[in-house]
């Protein structure tokens, strides 16, 4: 393989075609079904699928025998399915998603979720890095191999449209396409993060996730606070008390031991190494207000907190009027949306049921308390890397980043990984991504770091080629 030639090819393809395609993709407000119940009627998801489908089809002639189908199961989000023939009996699966998180507030002047803006090496807008680039990066890698006549195994590309809602449609597609997919021996996922933009980061684990809507009701309607306060318990105070069953309000630590697992020794050591590489960048990447501090200055503990320990975030609130509309009223109810990250090896469904029982039992003062589960995705812990993959990753990181590969867990979830780990227990996994410092996926000012997108595409090409070489030697 001529790595310099491969670099030129991939970089040129990104500059000439992929970045312009991502600019148009960012304009499409194709929010995931959880955030757009009328996604079918709005047609934005179909527009995003069409954009990617059109570009991908324009490249199939450069991948002899390749086929593309937009698979649509009744009542479910669509899925783009591409097969690229290869040599040997092995299969490589390359995965990504095209649905997006909602707008979020706080975008800087001139930026917005559906307003693509190029500033230097960064492309701002929702979904470019999470995870619109995946189909383009995956095909760029395969096109680069064909440009040099380098053999690879049969490749299957799957791009779903439900990941940000928990991938609840994906199992049906995996079952529907099972005979066509086969048994991948290598799975490539480009939907993860990176600790910095200086080297390749391999994701070793992903936390699971559960959560839903917690509601506390004390009255049928609001009443004068001067009349009721001191007589009617505040729904907000009761809600605080309930949350304290789950989370220590002073430290943020999750209280129930049932939501913890024993952290594998290797992951502890990898966390320490990641902390040495990143230093204060572990927390400096966040947009702190002046004077704020992280929960601890033990860097390795911060890594473990965000990768292997349960943590709670309140991501939405209901029943509370905006400040300018708030009168002297004791409100009838308060609701919050809870997002609980759980350890990679904890069962997400069981964790959700545990939390529901914890919050609903023995409601204070007899208040009407309900916790409606919305999410129950389990996490994932990577199998040990085969020697060939470990060496391939190391070489590719040096070839395209000029620095060693680094290994770290991620705090977010990719539900598909846990599913694949169960279905293909012998598969090797290359999980990486472009979501590095300040890229702010799901939040305001999200951006794609274009040089990292290019280099990740190059790494995928080399690893897929080495995968075939390894199979040929077997």
The count of β-strands is 18
Count helical runs.
15
Question: If you average the pLDDT, what whole number results?
Answer: 95
Poorly predicted parts? none
The computed structural class is alpha+beta
Task: Describe the main β-sheet briefly.
Answer: 6 strands, mixed
Beta-strand fraction estimate: 15-25%
Q: Rounded to an integer, what's the Rg over CA atoms?
A: 23 Å
Distance between the termini: 20 Å
**Roughly how much helix do the residues carry, as a percent range?**
25-40%
List the strand order in the largest sheet: 1-2-6-3-7-17
Net shape: globular
Keywords: Hydrolase, Metal-binding, Protease
Pfam family, one: Peptidase_M20
Protein name: Acetylornithine deacetylase/succinyl-diaminopimelate desuccinylase-like protein
Organism: Rhodanobacter soli
Structural summary, described in words:
Keywords: Hydrolase, Metal-binding, Protease. This is Acetylornithine deacetylase/succinyl-diaminopimelate desuccinylase-like protein. The protein has 474 residues and is of the alpha+beta class. The protein is built from 15 helices and 18 strands. It has a 6-stranded mixed β-sheet, covered by helices on one side. Strands 11-13-9-14 form a 4-stranded antiparallel β-sheet. The chain has a 3-stranded antiparallel β-sheet with strand order 4-5-18. Helix 4 packs across helix 15, helix 9 crosses helix 11 (299-308) and helix 13 (387-400) runs antiparallel to helix 15 (450-473). The radius of gyration is 23 Å and the shape is globular.
């Amino acid at each position: 393989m001529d790595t310099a030639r491969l670099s030129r090819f991939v970089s040129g393809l990104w500059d000439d075609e992929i970045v312009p395609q991502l600019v148009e993709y960012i304009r499409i407000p194709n929010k995931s079904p959880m955030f757009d119940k009328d996604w079918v009627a709005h047609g934005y998801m179909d527009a995003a699928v069409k954009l990617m489908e059109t570009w991908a089809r324009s490249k199939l002639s450069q991948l002899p025998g390749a086929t593309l189908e937009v698979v649509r199961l009744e009542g479910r989000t669509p899925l783009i399915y591409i097969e690229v023939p290869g040599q040997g009996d092995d299969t490589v699966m390359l995965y990504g998603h095209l649905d997006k998180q909602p707008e979020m507030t706080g975008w800087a002047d001139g930026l917005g979720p559906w307003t693509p803006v190029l500033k230097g090496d960064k492309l701002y807008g929702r979904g470019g890095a999470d995870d619109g680039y995946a189909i383009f990066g995956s095909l760029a890698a395969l096109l680069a191999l064909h440009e040099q006549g380098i053999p690879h195994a049969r490749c299957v590309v799957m791009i779903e449209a439900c990941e940000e809602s928990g991938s609840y449609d994906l199992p049906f597609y995996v079952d529907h396409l099972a005979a066509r997919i086969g048994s991948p021996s290598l799975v490539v996922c480009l939907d993860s993060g990176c600790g910095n933009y200086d080297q390749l980061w391999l994701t070793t684990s992903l936390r699971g996730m559960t959560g839903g809507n917690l509601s506390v009701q004390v009255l049928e309607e609001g009443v004068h606070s001067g009349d009721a306060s001191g007589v009617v318990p505040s729904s907000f105070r009761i809600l605080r008390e309930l949350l304290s069953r789950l989370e220590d309000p002073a430290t943020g630590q999750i209280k129930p031991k049932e939501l913890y697992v024993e952290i594998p020794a290797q992951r502890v050591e990898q966390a320490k190494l990641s902390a040495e590489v990143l230093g204060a960048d572990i927390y400096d990447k966040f947009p702190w207000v002046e004077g704020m501090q992280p929960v601890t200055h033990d860097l390795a503990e911060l890594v473990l907190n965000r990768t292997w320990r349960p943590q709670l975030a309140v991501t939405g609130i209901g029943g509370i009027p905006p400040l300018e509309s708030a009168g002297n009223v004791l409100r009838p109810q308060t609701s919050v949306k809870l997002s609980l990250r759980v350890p990679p090896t904890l069962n997400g469904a069981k964790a959700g049921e545990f939390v529901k029982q914890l919050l609903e039992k023995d409601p204070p003062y007899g208040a009407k308390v309900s916790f409606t589960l919305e999410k129950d995705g389990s996490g994932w812990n990577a199998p040990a890397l085969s020697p060939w993959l470990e060496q391939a990753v190391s070489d590719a990181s040096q070839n395209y980043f000029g620095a060693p590969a680094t290994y770290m867990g991620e705090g977010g979830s990719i539900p598909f990984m846990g599913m694949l780990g169960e279905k293909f227990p012998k598969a090797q996994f290359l999980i990486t991504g472009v979501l590095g410092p300040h890229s702010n996926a799901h939040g305001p000012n999200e951006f794609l770091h274009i040089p990292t997108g290019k280099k990740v595409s190059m790494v995928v090409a080399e690893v897929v080629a080495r995968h075939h070489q390894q199979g040929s030697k077997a």
